[in-house]
Write a structure and sequence with these properties.
The protein is built from three helices and 24 strands. It is mainly beta.
């Protein structure tokens, strides 16, 4: 496998390209010696581009206008990959890095390799040791930048730029032939997806205390796709391609005209009796398993009515036809609803790695709220009355994440829009320029949105109403005045750090509560969350 890395100055050199883009944040808990300033506030964007020759080009840009491109060539990238055996250890490679800042040097770290079986009835994860495979650190100055390989069609620059040269060894682990076997593993797949985790570190020698690190997943040949991870924690946007709203999984038999939405509402059912059976895969550590179960208990306690549980999570029994499987996957994502027409497990991914973790109280509760049948807050049909979407600052490939659901698809359960919802996106979600918002609250300009701490009071009420623990307000046929109140709540976020330690931080959230003295036939499917509708709610 040949991988080539270089700076390109613009995207126009790739005609007729198709691209997707995923943002991710730098690591505040970087354990590498180069990371002297873990709070460096830069934001990166990863653009995955496939050109007409099925080559992939991954473009990274930062607030410092740094751009990197990785070229993968040869038969090792093939969308219709069907080779029966391909030795993958010690592929020769070359790296060329060009930086527009001559004072910088860069290092390349290949870290954990992951593989998972994405057949619908399995959620098995295997991964090699969490160790550095190859490490390069060079600082070579040259006035001539030449092409590493004429077959890459990469542009030639005649600029005096700094450059990193080195060699690259690629390791791909196939299940059953892990590193401990002391053999050359084979890349052999039909329904498998392979992920190569690469971390880049940048050291700015002109400002030695401004150092940072980041990583990404390059998906090998199972399907097109870039797998990125947030170095702090992964949320909706840092998950496999093809997930509706970033972190929501739909049953394999559900399709839609756009390929990303919901077409058959009857697939989304409430969990019977509000009980969600679960199993935790062996690749979740004991400490993280305890943390996840504690978040389940917290949600159960928060949603109790008169000291009686409204929803519950319990270990699955062998007789359970529907259950979730929690595993250490390639991001934070979960199914929406119980998938009543689909027998088997529903995958819930809570990643925890060297740079990235989902082990944050609000992220666990966010994904489990998807499991209970709820979508994102900012996709409600009434969202334009509460937030302004800044379309000109949204990465084009991720614009679909800001689509609104129709009244006929979802039910707000007669609740008001909730800035403080654990299901709301943050202000700069999928931003082209992360210093500029993509979502601006309009009822309260200072409202904090995107909290990942715990269920908000309105989140709790919606779950209670959805599962019949609290009755819906009486329907009316007249409309009168509306009053709005602002509530500020301080709650505590709990997070497991990369070293396994538990930390807590106080976070203040703001909720806008709109009270209708009477409403107009407000029972129907009038909002974004939840999407899970029982059969009696389905219109023909």
């Amino acid at each position: 496998m040949m991988i080539f890395l270089s700076i390109i100055l613009c995207l126009s050199v790739f005609p007729n390209i198709i691209y997707t883009t995923v943002p991710f944040i730098l690591n505040p808990d970087c354990d590498l010696p180069e990371c002297e300033n873990p709070n460096y506030p830069a934001l990166y964007y990863a653009n995955h581009i496939i050109d007409n020759n099925n080559k992939i080009h991954i473009i990274y840009s930062t607030l410092d206008q740094l751009t990197i491109s990785i070229f993968q060539t040869g038969k090792n990238y093939d969308p219709t990959f069907n080779y029966t055996a391909l030795f993958s250890r010690n592929y020769p490679g070359a790296i060329q890095f060009i930086d527009t800042k001559p004072t910088n040097s860069f290092s390349l770290v290949l870290r954990r390799l992951m593989e998972f079986d994405d057949e619908p009835d399995k959620a098995n994860i295997t991964k090699c040791e969490n160790t550095t495979i190859s490490y390069y650190l060079h600082n070579i100055t040259t006035n001539n930048v030449t092409m590493l390989n004429n077959n890459t069609n990469q542009p030639t620059f005649q600029l005096p730029l700094d450059m990193l040269n080195g060699s690259l060894n690629i390791d791909v682990i196939y299940p059953g032939e892990a590193m401990r076997d002391k053999k050359s593993p084979k890349l052999k797949t039909t329904s498998k997806s392979y992920f190569l985790n690469i971390a880049l570190q940048a050291n700015n020698f002109s400002a030695p205390h401004t150092r940072f690190a980041f990583e990404f997943y390059l998906m090998l040949p199972g399907t097109h796709g870039l797998r990125t991870s947030s170095s702090r924690f992964i949320d909706d946007h840092f998950t496999p391609d093809g997930l509706d709203g970033g972190d929501m999984v739909h049953p394999p038999f559900i399709t839609s005209p756009t390929g990303r939405g919901v077409a058959i509402r009857s697939a989304y059912d409430r969990w019977t009796g509000g009980v969600v059976p679960y199993e935790i895969a062996s690749n979740i550590s004991a400490n993280n398993s305890i943390f996840i179960v504690n978040m389940m208990r917290a949600m159960e306690n928060l949603t109790k009515v008169n000291n009686t549980q409204c929803i519950s999570f319990r270990p699955r029994n062998t007789s359970d036809l529907y259950y979730i499987t929690i595993f250490n996957g390639s991001g934070c994502y979960a199914p929406v609803g119980s998938w009543r027409n689909y027998i088997g497990n529903r995958p819930v991914s809570f990643m925890h790695g060297t740079y990235a973790t989902c082990m944050v109280s609000g992220i666990i509760q966010h994904e489990l709220t998807h499991v209970l049948g709820f979508y994102h807050e900012q996709s409600r049909p009434d969202r334009d009355s509460y937030v302004s979407i800044q379309w000109n600052n949204i990465l084009p490939a991720n614009a679909f994440n800001f689509d609104m659901y129709n009244d006929s698809d979802v039910d707000t359960l007669m609740t008001s829009y909730d800035y403080g919802s654990v299901m709301h996106y943050e202000r700069n979600a999928f931003a082209i320029n992360s210093s500029v918002a993509t979502i601006i609250p309009t009822k309260n300009a200072s409202a904090f949105i995107g909290q990942r701490v715990q269920l908000s009071p309105i989140d709790i009420l919606e779950i209670q109403r959805y599962y019949g623990c609290v009755p819906m307000p009486t329907n009316t046929t007249t409309s009168t005045t509306t009053s709005t109140a602002t509530t500020t709540t301080t709650i505590t976020v709990t997070q497991i750090t990369m070293t396994g330690a538990t930390t807590t931080t106080a976070v203040t959230t703001t909720t806008i509560t709109t009270t209708n003295k009477s409403s107009v036939n407000n029972r129907g499917h009038s909002g974004c969350r939840p999407a899970a509708l029982v059969a009696s709610d389905i219109s023909s």
